[in-house]
What we know:
Blueprint: E1 3-4, H1 7-28, E2 35-41, H2 45-60, E3 64-70, H3 76-87, E4 94-97, H4 107-112, H5 125-133, H6 141-152, E5 161-165, H7 172-181, E6 185-189, H8 196-201, E7 205-208, E8 226-229, E9 233-234, E10 240-241, H9 246-252, E11 255-256, H10 264-283, E12 289-290, E13 298-299
Parallel strand pairs: 1-11, 2-3, 2-4, 5-6, 5-7, 7-8, 8-11
Antiparallel strand pairs: 9-10, 12-13
Helix pairs in contact: 1-10, 6-7, 6-10
The structure holds NADPH dihydro-nicotinamide-adenine-dinucleotide phosphate.
Amino acid sequence: MATLIDGKKVSSVIREGIKKRVRLYRKMFKGSVPNLTVIIVGNNPASQTYVRNKAKAFAECGMRSSIIAMPEDISQTELINKISELNGDPDVNGILVQLPLPPQIEERDVLYSISPEKDVDCFHPVNVGKLVNGSHDFLPCTPAGIMELLRYYGIDPAGKRCTVVGRSNIVGKPVSLLMLEKNATVTICHSRTVNISEMTGSADILIAAVGRAGFIKADMIKEGAVVIDVGINRGQDGKLTGDVAFAEVAEKASAITPVPGGVGPMTITMLLMNTIRAALIQHRHSGRVQRRKGASYTISG
Ligand code: NDP
């Protein structure tokens, strides 16, 4: 039976570290703490739950967050004007626009209007470019969470064959780049891939980000593979399941993430990290924060 990669546990360990960093930050910056603003448009119940969960996590870690709720029929210009205002507000360190947006709004234009320094979701082309060339300040939250899980469980991608199923901008592409950065040999599959089992079956590390319940079956994986299930699929009974047929794959894999409780809890944790990072980047010009060569931003002693 495979080792269970426990995202809840790893997440709570990282959050303890975050609380310490926030206390240090508070000391350094005269009682202020990193601050995220989330914009939510309309009344999508799932989005409202996600936003509430984010606010709860920020409060638990001693950080600030605020929610700006905008009506479903808001125009793109009004939304972008609000983002411009937040871009210029020194009290706001991170800006996140909860997706999806209503159809009258071009998602890309909105996401690109967020200042790269405050783009804690890592969607802005400047941050995507930095991700590609390995000079990133921010990592997209879900892919970063996957890398942290691997690190925590001592799974080194170097020299391994990694297959990623899914090529979205949010998960598939960025996690492929991060695995490449960690020296894995990466194959990316999508809906037009022919003979997908051949690609998944040769993987030492398989990452499923498809959005189809139980898509990855035991006969599609290699004996002893590490299986990371990003999928979140809600069944008719309301239960959440992943993209991997968990019971049968767990018999064959060496390690596997459950759904729920695997990758999911890591996503918000990485958002907390990115917001601290954003705040430090914004303080950089004050000279109170230094950047170690090749390292992410850190609080100087
Ligand atoms: P997208 O729908 O944007 O992308 C799905 C990808 O899967 C696409 O690249 C698509 O290929 C590919 N795909 C679909 N059907 C097949 C198939 N039959 N064979 C091979 N590839 C296929 O989804 P996301 O990347 O945004 O999300 C994926 C899953 O992860 C979802 O369940 C989502 O809810 C979940 N998720 C979980 C998060 C977490 O925090 N745990 C965060 C984000 C997402 P093509 O490009 O050709 O269409």
